[in-house]
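Slide 14.
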Amino acid sequence: MTTLSGNGPLRLGIAGLGTVGAGVVKIVRQKSNLLADRAGQAIAISAVSARSKGKDRGVNLSQYAWEDDPVALATRDDVDVYVELMGGSDGPAKASVEAALKAGKHVVTANKALLAHHGQALAELAEANGAVLRFEAAVAGGIPVIKALTEGLAGNDMDRVMGVMNGTCNYILTRMQSAGLPYDEVFEEANQLGYLEADPTLDVGGIDAGHKLSLLASVAFGTQVDFDAVELEGIERITIDDITQAADMGYRIKLLGVAQMSGRGLEQRMSPCLVPATSPLGQLEGGTNMVVLEGDQVEQVVLRGPGAGEGPTASAVMGDVMDIARGFRVSTFGVPAASLTETTPAKTATPAPYYLRLALEDKPGALAKLATVLGDAGVSIDRMRQYRHDDAGAAPILIVTHKTTRDALDAAILGMTTLDVVTGEPVALRIETV
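Slide 15: predicted structure.
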């Protein structure tokens, strides 16, 4: 295990010098006195690593040792804390974090994919070697939600955690609403602004946010990370009509992650939902993130802040570094790794009202056939609107159901596919109470 000197500085090795890595270097250089006063120990950088040594990163790196191999960086004698900011669920990120932990080095990472896929094994490895593995920056950027769960809310049994955890998707959805623009146009705008990952499906497909939700669920409910059990649905099918029609009814559409423990097991879903426009989530604009934590003692806590970017994410990294410098130790997911229970994945069974959009051909008895299919599945209609027929003769139909289960709704949608009056594929969105 790394033994921290009482007099010497806490020495960092930083792998990954992109936006976040450069931000961490800037904080260490520019706020050295403040960090030392708050930590009771100086914070220094010993060495760094990245794919390209000669790239201009807007910060002077000449005083730090350079390692081409992040594994070599992670095991240097003059590194107390290995800061992994490369990304990726496998490859150099996984190999270097494992090497650091085996060497008894503490690790701070912003790598949500790595922990979503290998969190349990890495937590066990950290504990076996007396090391600390921290990941505040991996979830919701600058929002200190992991600290909130493991420290401030440690006296609560958590009932539900939910939130908007991908700023790109929130930007797209709010931009569609404010500018009245279609999805494809705003998607391209976000791409031009550099908001999208190299693989855009990580953002708009809900995968990035799903990684974050699986980590939050593990901390909140004391379960082993189970990203494979997260029900994922992206925002690709959301149209400007959905946006405007939801607004007409007093709702906003958000890519919302929800995790809660039910009698069947742990429900984890990341999907577009309708939320009340007047709620904190409904009022969330642009690339901002928001996490809502509900516990049996505290009831509801709402945390809002920037979910990405150099400053906010580097701030979260440094929060973890400072805790290590102060000698604060906490298990990776809030309890010893051996205490984390295996999840019993449960498909969402908690009843809720749903928004349902479909198109009906202009034929006699079309509405009656639709109502019969819904009734046979046990789905009752709360509100329904019919809009003008389009050029092809199909009428858009908007339905808000009473509370029902997703299984019942899926049965109704399956029945609709057999009708000769339904055109296209119906879109169903859960209406979440917040």
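Speaker note: The radius of gyration is 24 Å.
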